[in-house]
Amino acid sequence: MSAVYEVINPANEQSVKKVDLADLAATDAVIEKAAKAFESWKKIAPSDRAKLLRAFAQVVSDHREELAKLEVTNSGHTIGNALWEADNVANVLNYYSASPERLFGKQIPVANGIDITFKEPLGVVGQIIPWNFPILMAAWKLAPAVVAGNCVVLKPAEFTPISILILMEIIADILPPGVINIVNGYGRDVGAPLANSRRIGKIAFTGSTGTGRVIAQAAASNLIPATLELGGKSPNVFFEDIADADDDFFDKAVEGLVLFAFNQGEVCTCPSRALIQESIYDKFMERVLPRVAAIKQGNPLDPNTMIGAQASQDQLNKIMSYMDIGKQEGAKLLIGGERNMLSGALADGYYIQPTLLKGHNKMRVFQEEIFGPVLAVTTFKDEADALAIANDTIFGLGSGVWTRDGSRAYRMGRGIKAGRVW
Question: What are phi and psi of 366, to 5 degrees?
Answer without folding.
Answer: -95, -25
